[in-house]
Write a structure and sequence with these properties.
Blueprint (H helix, E strand, L loop, with lengths): L1 H8 L3 E9 L2 E9 L6 E8 L3 H10 L12 E10 L5 E9 L2
Parallel strand pairs: 3-4
Antiparallel strand pairs: 1-2, 2-3, 4-5
InterPro entries: PDDEXK_9
Organism: [Eubacterium] hominis
Pfam family, one: PDDEXK_9
Length: 97
């Protein structure tokens, strides 16, 4: 699913993967090609939590490169499996203030 979103997003965004930002490496940075679209910082986790992904975006100051955009979204996605190998995911989208 992420790959399909990534491919479609290239029509509207400059998409950067695993790039040095702030104090670490962001998984995905979506920088709008034109006005009217929010900048998006996407962090992925496995067997952790979407909250941890959002916290990492904040703690490592990933917003630095896109701080001049009118709207910025933080997206944290976690994929996990339980003991029975059931796959679960959770997602948090937070507007940068």
């Amino acid at each position: 699913m992420i790959t399909l979103c990534y491919l479609y997003a290239r029509n509207y965004y400059e998409v950067t993967r695993e790039d040095k930002l702030g104090k670490g490496f962001v998984d995905y940075l979506f920088t709008p090609k034109k006005k009217g679209y929010p900048a998006i910082i996407l962090e992925l986790k496995y067997n952790k939590s979407a909250e941890e992904a959002i916290d990492q975006i904040k703690k490592k100051n990933y917003v630095e490169r896109v701080k001049d955009f009118d709207e910025i979204l933080f997206v944290g996605i976690n994929y996990s499996t339980d003991a029975d190998e059931h796959k679960h995911h959770d997602c948090i989208i937070e507007k940068y203030k």
